[in-house]
Design brief:
Elements: H1 4-20, H2 27-34, H3 38-44, H4 48-60, H5 65-70, H6 73-86, H7 88-122, H8 131-156, H9 162-177
Helix pairs in contact: 1-2, 1-4, 1-7, 6-7, 6-9, 7-8
């Protein structure tokens, strides 16, 4: 169960980042935005990097591993795209301010697990006799490609055409992976 206080702080954080940028956002800005004290903030988060990580984990990515196991990679991707689009201005501001390399460090561990499921489900078991090294290569490649595409898209577009993204990812998944 997600804390209402954390949600309120996260929404204030996103609003402030959209106005000021991540690097210029202070804890005081966040607490003023939502009418809370600094003590409230520090009870739930260590710093603004901690709240950023919380937003990624709880508002961008799917946290219920049981749900993820039942979803196709296309469904997971569409969920991710939809969540980015809901807070597009925020995610664009974050990528512009902290850069694609830092974004990669933040989200790679989460996306890697989903990509691993996709690779394991997609690849013909007979081909993967030397499975471990090939699987690692494929997982890292597809994870990096996805993160790079999304961060470059955020940097290059002021808004997201969610329908176009859904169509393009559907094309990729059906044409290349079955």
């Amino acid at each position: 169960m997600v804390s209402r206080t954390k949600e309120k702080l996260a929404e204030a954080f996103k609003a402030v980042v959209c106005r000021k940028t991540f690097s210029k956002t202070t804890i005081s800005d966040i607490t003023t935005e939502c009418g809370m004290t600094r003590e409230n903030f520090y009870y739930h988060f260590r710093d603004k990097y901690d709240i950023l990580d919380w937003v990624f984990q709880n508002q961008l990515l799917i946290q219920d591993t049981e749900s993820v196991q039942k979803m196709t990679m296309e469904e997971i991707t569409l969920h991710f795209i939809h969540n980015i689009n809901k807070d597009y201005k925020f995610y664009r501001a974050i990528v512009k301010d902290i850069g694609p390399d830092q974004i990669r460090k933040e989200v790679f561990p989460y996306i890697e697990g989903t990509t691993r499921k996709f690779v394991e489900d997609s690849m013909d078991k007979n081909i993967w006799k030397m499975r471990e090294e090939k699987e690692h290569f494929a997982v890292e490649y597809f994870t990096d490609a996805f993160i790079s595409f999304i961060t470059n898209y955020l940097l290059g577009h002021k808004e997201m055409d969610e329908k176009m993204m859904v169509t393009n990812f559907h094309f990729l998944y059906t044409q290349f992976f079955g």
